[in-house]
DNA sequence: CGGCGAATTGAAATGCATCAAATTGGGTGG
DNA sequence: CCACCCAATTTGATGCATTTCAATTCGCCG
């Protein structure tokens, strides 16, 4: 690793935050920085499970697909989040970069040893895994019971929260919030279990109703947050 | 607890299996046996998170619903599985009994202390939580991309595997496998994100094609496992 | 300015939901 | 033991949201 952990932008939020300086130095020696270009894949579903990582910058997707090629994005990862699946010989899902990204990568076997040696880190990972499980279970409800309109409105809301600090987010205190979606229409469709056309139509409808503005092809401005929340089914 | 852990039918498979006899006695003092009748609910989504448990017998559902009452079952629990969400002040999902059930219940705060004192148990819980996360992510693909026919065929297959030993499963070595579904049509619909009518029609279709027989209202006989797997989209 | 992938828009097809009615079957009391 | 009852299931007819197929249009980069 060229850069040191002390410089790390996500140090406080990441799993490594549970380690003291000495422990961090030990972990540091096991890992290395890795850059990924948009579209690049670092793990394929069904392949051998070789690495774990902390995401430093960018957005990654976790995806699965049916035998005949229908795809579903089963999770999105933002900076400081843990990527990987300790205690498993193969990986169930593919990991790819939706934007250019930078990670701190560790060999899985060595990472598991570190986990075994540091209770605080193992505890933190358990808590995060429970949180991820809850989030994924909540998405089951959304994917199977929400309408296309609710899905798209809810997605824009969740991206507005999470994208803050990721993409250039121009939020004025009382004015409208503007940010760039890190996903194409097709990727949004793969997250929500819809088609590109349906996502596009729903966004157009929100624009027509004055709830959103769509400056440029990735940009979004939330003009009426309350209306957006209502359309997401959050009352 | 009237019955002792030594008698416990699920001792080897459950989390407690990671404890030695002395540790088990300590955990034993914290918990108690609890019986649930079919339909009974032990935790409501949004309520305070007070207990964890091991399921001894029966089948439980974990469910969420939208503001306007659409329900989705986000998980099913079978005997020996761990129920609960350590490290959270409220629960996100309701827990109810699909059949009469029996649990070994522990106060959440005390259970967390035990977890903190026994690395083996914490490790085992982390592994199980990762497995549950993978399973839930896989269900995202099924719910959003599979057709009703694929969902129902896949559900029957998964219940055939899991129900073995739960309900009276009469499997002859080479002959057809027969078992009882622990869920009503309505509950199956809530698992698969369909309606009662669609589930019924798909089962009828499988019966008409000679893939299944439906002896009685809960019974299922798999006459042609290969055809069922093909219809589930497993090639 | 020209090219090309991504996004939008339109028209038609379809799978599942919805609404409605008939049937089954397990349990109860006469 | 049988008749009845009620809830669950099945079956039928119709509607609609979303997909599918098919053109444009947009916006970015050379």
Assembly type of the shown chains?
homodimer
Return the CATH class of the largest domain in chain A. Mainly Beta
SS content category of chain A:
alpha+beta
Please name the two chains that share the biggest interface, counting residues whose Cβ lies under 8 Å from a Cβ on the partner chain.
Answer: A-B, 44 and 44 residues
How many whole angstroms does the radius of gyration of chain A measure?
Answer: 19 Å
* Tally of DSSP helical segments of chain A: 7
Distance from N terminus to C terminus of chain A (CA atoms, Å) equals 48 Å
Q: How does the overall form of chain A come out from the CA principal axes? A: globular
Helix content of chain A: 25-40%
How many distinct beta strands of chain A? 12
CATH architecture type of the largest domain in chain A = Sandwich
- Looking at CATH, which topology of the largest domain in chain A would you report? Jelly Rolls
Tell me the count of domains of chain A.
Answer: 2
- Output the helix-strand order of chain A: HEEEEEEEEHHHEEHHEEH
Molecular structure report:
- Chains A, B: Keywords: DNA-binding, Transcription, Transcription regulation.
- Chains A, B: It holds the Pfam family cNMP_binding.
- Chains A, B: InterPro entries: cNMP-bd_dom, cNMP-bd_dom_sf, Env_Response_Regulators, HTH_CRP, RmlC-like_jellyroll, Tscrpt_reg_HTH_Crp-type_CS, WH-like_DNA-bd_sf, WH_DNA-bd_sf.
- 2 copies of one chain form a homodimer.
- With 235 residues, the first copy, chain A, is an alpha+beta fold.
- Chain A folds into 2 domains: 5-143, Sandwich (Jelly Rolls); 146-231, Winged helix-like DNA-binding domain superfamily/Winged helix DNA-binding domain (Arc Repressor Mutant, subunit A, Orthogonal Bundle), CATH 1.10.10.
- Chain A is 38% helix and 23% strand.
- Chain A contains 7 helices and 12 strands.
- Chain A has helices at 21-30, 108-117, 119-145, 148-162, 185-192, 196-208, 225-231, and strands at 32-36, 41-43, 51-57, 60-65, 71-77, 82-83, 94-97, 101-107, 170-171, 177-180, 212-213, 219-222.
- In chain A, strands 1-8-3-6 form a 4-stranded antiparallel beta sheet. In chain A, strands 2-7-4-5 form a 4-stranded antiparallel beta sheet.
- In chain A, a hairpin with a 5-residue loop joins strand 9 and strand 10 (177-180).
- In chain A, helix 5 crosses helix 6 (196-208).
- The longest helix of chain A is centred in the middle third of the chain and has 27 residues, at 119-145.
- The radius of gyration of chain A is 19 Å and the shape is globular.
- The mean pLDDT of chain A is 92.
- The structure holds a DNA duplex (30 and 30 nucleotides).
